[in-house]
Every structure is written in C-alpha cells, then in structure tokens.
C-alpha cells in the first residue's frame, strides 16, 4: 500500500474530495438548495463563487447538492447492478445446463435493446422517483456485470480446488462465496470503477432529457439542462457540471486502473 | 580444443522479482557458471527446477526470459562474444547458428499452419537454403527422425500428429537450418515413457549424424546419461559438479550428485491382500457424455485396507477416468463400486457425507488444487469444520497436529499457497485429505510435477502416514519407479482395459505380456548404453507412434 503511483494518488484525492462534498453537502453549501439569492446568470464574485444560475440560485450550492444526488444514485445503482449481476453470473456458471441457458439468453435479449431507449420507455410509464431511477439503472446495467461475472466464474469452476470442494460435499453457497468470489474479485472491482462512471453519465443523460431527477432537486445533468441556453450568451454555467463529471470520471478511472494493475498479476503487475 | 564451439565464462544472470506488498528486489539466478562445448559433442545440464539450467541454456542465444538480465561473464559462440551484439547481430545468430527445441512442442507450433511450412521457416528467413533445398532437407530429417511417411508428413497440421511426433518435428525444425549448436530444453519431459524412448533415440541419432553440438537440459539424470558426453550438475544457479557422463554416473564426487544418482531407493515390503477389501471395483464401463467410445472397458480391481494399489499406464489409458468414476464425478454406464462393504451411489451428488469423508483425493497439480486466496490454516481446517464440526482452539490444535504430521509445523498456518514451494504445496494437499480421516485416498499422479528429490520425500511421507493412519491408497501414475517404491498390488492399464493385475511381485516378474514388457523396459535406467540395448530388444512399438 506504500507504493501508490502518482496517478492513482491524484485519482484517490479527487475521488475523495467529491465523495466528501457529497456526504457533507448541507454543511459546506453556502446557501439553501432552492433559495433565490441573486440575479439571473450573475458572473462569479466573492459572494457567489461560481455565479448564479438561470433563475438566480447560487451555482456552487446547486453543484454541491447536485453532486450529492448524482453520486448517491450512481453508487446505489452500481451496488445493485453488481449484486444482481455477480450473483446471477456465478449461479449460471456453477449450475450450468438450462439455468445458464435461460439466464444467458434473457440477458442477450435485454442487451439487444439500447439501454438508454429502454430506460426512457420504462421511466415514461413509471413515476420518476429516486428509488425507481436506481432500480431501472441498476437492473439494466446488471446485464453487463452478469456477462463478466459468468465469464470469470466459468474459468474458475474448472479449477481443481472447486472440484475438491465439490467432492468434499460443499453446498453451492460455499462454492460461490468462498471458492469463486475471492478469486473473481479483482476483475469485478476494476469493472466496478468503470461501471460507476457509466452510471454517472447515465443519470446525467436521463436528467438532461428530463426523465431523471426532477426539479427543484439538483443533479449535474439537470444543471446542464437548466443552464444550456446561457451558452449562447457566453455564460459558462452549463460547463461547470460537465467539468465535474469529466474530472470525476478521470479520477475514478485512475483508481480503477491502479486496482486492476495491482491485482491481475500476483507477480507485481505490469509496468509498475 | 581447437574446435571449441561454445565457451561460457563466469556467467552471471540476474532478475528483478516483485514480491507482493514489498518493493522489487534483484536476485541472482545464475552465478559464476563456466563451461565449454566442442563441435559434435553433447553437454547435459541437470538440476531441479529453479537451478537455472534453462536460463543458462538460453544465454547461449543471449536471450533472457521475462525480465531476466545477463549481467556478467561472456558467452563465446565460434570464438565471438555474443553478449554485446545488437538486435540485428542476435537475429542473425538465433535460428541460424544456434537453434532451440522447447519442452512443449504442442504449445510451440502454430496450429493454423502446416508442419513443413513451420519447419523450414527459419531456414528460409535466414537465407540458409532455397525453398526446394529446405524442403528436401526437412523431408530427409523427417525420415532420419523415424517419422511416418516423411514425404507427406509435412502436409499435416500440428493437431493431426501425436505428441512424440510433434516433438520430433520440432527437432527437425531446429536441425533444418544446419546450425552449429542446438539447445534442447527438456524435450522429452512431457512425453510418456514409452514415447520418450523413441524420441530420445531419434534425437541421439540425429545429433550424431549431423555432427552438431548440443546442450541438453533436463531434470532426469537417467535420460541425460543416454545422450550426453559430459554432464554439468547445477543447484541454485551454481555448478555443483562438471565432468564426463561416465564419471558423474559411476563415480559422483559431490553429496548432491550422489543423492540425484541414488534417488528412488525406497524399500517397501509388499503386503498380502486381505479378504475384506475396502474398495471393490466391479466390471466398470464408462464413457464421457457426447462420445461414442468407452474410455473404460470392464475394469475390476480390489484394494485391501491400509494397502496401496498402483494403477499404471500411459496418458489416454483411462487411469484418471477410473479415479473420476470412483469419486462419482463421472457415473459409469455399467458396473458397481463397493466401498467399505457398501455399494456407492454412482453420482457423487447422491452420496451421503460419510462416504465423501472416507474417500479423499489428492491431485497432480497442487497449485490449482488449493484456493490461492485461502491460507494453509483455512485449507486444512475446512474439512475438520465440515465433517467433524471442530471450531476455534480445538480446530487450531488439530490443524497444528496435521501440519506436524506432514513435517511442516505451526509456522505455516497463516501462509498462502503462493508462498510455498511445490513440495510443501503437495504436503498441504495431503494434510487436507488426512484431515477427513479417510479410509481411502486417491492419489492422481501426485509426484509427477515434482523434482525427483522432492517427490522422494513425498513418497516417504505417504508411506509413513499409511503405517500411522492405516489408510489405503489408489495410486495413479505413469512412473514405474514410483510404483516399485510404494505399491502392494499393481494394475497395468492399456487403452481402457486392465492388461495385468495382481500383487507387485507377480506383476513385475516375468513372463510379461507385450505391453507390460514395453512399459517396464522404457523406464530410463541410470547406466550408460542402456538406450541402445533397449531399442535393440523391444517387442512392441509404443502406442503414441
């Protein structure tokens, strides 16, 4: 743990800052979330560090609360997609036969439909609340995790130590959680970093299209939507959330890369 | 000494290792090794795994595998130091003046290209012959190496020929550019004994007829004694002893060499079978699903409590399949298995826990038989917890007892498999099997992947444990020296059938059937001139031919 490369360190610091801001949003934010404190699109000043938005709310406050919503939804959806995807993937790999066929073909079917369009269709008939958003995003994304988990687990189930556990008479739960999971963890953790970022982009896209987080609650995609008209007049308000999404994506990926490097090879990894 | 072809002086080779969780370290793999090789002679490099023998062999091509660096000494080929040569100079050297025969021919050939194309490729790239000449040369080599239909053999793809033939094709590949020096890196280690002997004879003849010099790398002293003129014994990257083959085999000077020469000297007194066998295999016939071919045909054998039944045969004879049938991983098509007086369910999933506990298994590759993310304590402790419900201090006490029994001790309890040597890993697997207090342990080639001295230790341990725990072994192996060392009775298998079965003294005594004779005579012996003698007196060709 002592030899963290500089790129991973940068990633860790930025990711940490974003998460801390999300957790302590009410303490950090200078104003209230929906409080109108100034004119429309004021430039940045000592009172409003990032200026104000399309109806005169403090942009920094909106950004902090927006980050909280975005990161919370993305985290919860990632957790959901990993739990469902990994458990079903491991199950398909260990049981095999028609269970594997049924699950795999169903996942193929789901993946044949572009997930954004699928989500838009579902959300247009369901009430758009945060739990529904998380559920839809998490389940749609779990198809990708299922594929990865199944592929990794299929390689592990043919190892002699899994056969030894089977011969000992171990149940399926033990084999999945004690024999397969610890050995499948490193590719899954690395994938989790990437999936989290896709979730951030997904929820931002949905909000931008108006089917994600509903006003007056803020989220980064929503802030872009509210302020996009300002770009025409040279107002940078819509670019701040874009900037935040980009930096979060890069820093989480730096960390994920490092985890991948460290854990794929027991001989110390590539490159150093 | 005018014709010295390869001269290595004070070779030093280092590598950087990356132990998990620690900063990288430089280690010395080879230290101060010197040797010289004249035209037309063969030098055998022998040592256990990790002795640096392959690394020295590759240094004759100025090549370091995976981060290995040559940091000192000089390597002279034809009087020219090759270490300072640049990429271009080395490219001209490799595959032309010096060629290489790898251990696993199956992994070394491109499966998508015909053999002839690959055999002549290096010769053409280096412009050492025209295409027509190279093809003629390859065909002549095929004939010399005893390959079937040399004219058309090259038109086959790698998967269409047997392992022994592929190894010979690779020898042809190495000899085709008419090099000065060929490096043979364990060319027969992956082959069956009966196939090994043909390949060995072919290689020896080809070396003699073409007059090349060769470095022959192996861990098997009996094999190297057949082909080489001189032998260098290596241990941990240093020369232990260097002399003529005759001197090393017949008058070894060093302690370590003597140990290598006298390995497999275990004395085991045969026990007579009793009336109530612990395992009775009756008329088993089995095939894998989706195939139309019986891998086992009417197998019947008995095993008495506390004794060892050795199942011997080449790869493909069905001996591992027999283990899968007994453990219930492959339900048989016909026949029954009686274990401790009761009939076993044919499918492992339907067997009660007590049956599973009393029948344990040890695998060939200890590395993959243990979960790399579990500690030794967890690995050995799980059967204790699972079968006997032991927990906490009681479980720990029993784990330590077992660790002592396998001569390792308490210090290993928190180690991970990656931190153990090959022999220690196999010992942990033995402890895991013993933890269940079984009546029968199936040992599937448990010593095949180990160095001779380490394998010897494992066999002695197994014999001692048998005395203490009164456990029976079904010992699957292709190695007759192992069988002689530990078996009470023997079943010889050939193409899915038991061709000879009985107490050890009877099976290993003449008159032999043809196959047992072939198998017994193919085990390399530690004496000069053995190869020629055997080839001259054999009755039957190996199945791999």
Automatic annotation (TrEMBL), chain A:
<protein>
    <submittedName>
        <fullName>Peptide/nickel transport system permease protein</fullName>
    </submittedName>
</protein>
<keyword id="KW-1133">Transmembrane helix</keyword>
<dbReference type="Pfam" id="PF00528">
    <property type="entry name" value="BPD_transp_1"/>
</dbReference>
<feature type="transmembrane region" description="Helical">
    <location>
        <begin position="6"/>
        <end position="29"/>
    </location>
</feature>
<keyword id="KW-0472">Membrane</keyword>
<keyword id="KW-0812">Transmembrane</keyword>
<dbReference type="GO" id="GO:0005886">
    <property type="term" value="C:plasma membrane"/>
</dbReference>
<keyword id="KW-0813">Transport</keyword>
<dbReference type="InterPro" id="IPR035906">
    <property type="entry name" value="MetI-like_sf"/>
</dbReference>
<dbReference type="InterPro" id="IPR000515">
    <property type="entry name" value="MetI-like"/>
</dbReference>
<comment type="similarity">
    <text>Belongs to the binding-protein-dependent transport system permease family.</text>
</comment>
<feature type="transmembrane region" description="Helical">
    <location>
        <begin position="192"/>
        <end position="211"/>
    </location>
</feature>
<keyword id="KW-1003">Cell membrane</keyword>
<dbReference type="Pfam" id="PF12911">
    <property type="entry name" value="OppC_N"/>
</dbReference>
<feature type="domain" description="ABC transmembrane type-1">
    <location>
        <begin position="67"/>
        <end position="256"/>
    </location>
</feature>
<dbReference type="InterPro" id="IPR025966">
    <property type="entry name" value="OppC_N"/>
</dbReference>
<feature type="transmembrane region" description="Helical">
    <location>
        <begin position="71"/>
        <end position="96"/>
    </location>
</feature>
<dbReference type="GO" id="GO:0055085">
    <property type="term" value="P:transmembrane transport"/>
</dbReference>
<feature type="transmembrane region" description="Helical">
    <location>
        <begin position="231"/>
        <end position="260"/>
    </location>
</feature>
<dbReference type="InterPro" id="IPR050366">
    <property type="entry name" value="BP-dependent_transpt_permease"/>
</dbReference>
<feature type="transmembrane region" description="Helical">
    <location>
        <begin position="116"/>
        <end position="140"/>
    </location>
</feature>
From TrEMBL, chain B:
<dbReference type="InterPro" id="IPR027417">
    <property type="entry name" value="P-loop_NTPase"/>
</dbReference>
<dbReference type="GO" id="GO:0055085">
    <property type="term" value="P:transmembrane transport"/>
</dbReference>
<dbReference type="GO" id="GO:0005886">
    <property type="term" value="C:plasma membrane"/>
</dbReference>
<dbReference type="Pfam" id="PF00005">
    <property type="entry name" value="ABC_tran"/>
</dbReference>
<dbReference type="InterPro" id="IPR013563">
    <property type="entry name" value="Oligopep_ABC_C"/>
</dbReference>
<keyword id="KW-0067">ATP-binding</keyword>
<dbReference type="InterPro" id="IPR017871">
    <property type="entry name" value="ABC_transporter-like_CS"/>
</dbReference>
<dbReference type="GO" id="GO:0016887">
    <property type="term" value="F:ATP hydrolysis activity"/>
</dbReference>
<keyword id="KW-0813">Transport</keyword>
<feature type="domain" description="ABC transporter">
    <location>
        <begin position="11"/>
        <end position="261"/>
    </location>
</feature>
<dbReference type="InterPro" id="IPR003439">
    <property type="entry name" value="ABC_transporter-like_ATP-bd"/>
</dbReference>
<dbReference type="InterPro" id="IPR050319">
    <property type="entry name" value="ABC_transp_ATP-bind"/>
</dbReference>
<keyword id="KW-0547">Nucleotide-binding</keyword>
<dbReference type="Pfam" id="PF08352">
    <property type="entry name" value="oligo_HPY"/>
</dbReference>
<dbReference type="GO" id="GO:0005524">
    <property type="term" value="F:ATP binding"/>
</dbReference>
<protein>
    <submittedName>
        <fullName>Peptide/nickel transport system ATP-binding protein</fullName>
    </submittedName>
</protein>
<dbReference type="InterPro" id="IPR003593">
    <property type="entry name" value="AAA+_ATPase"/>
</dbReference>
<feature type="domain" description="ABC transporter">
    <location>
        <begin position="279"/>
        <end position="520"/>
    </location>
</feature>
<dbReference type="GO" id="GO:0015833">
    <property type="term" value="P:peptide transport"/>
</dbReference>
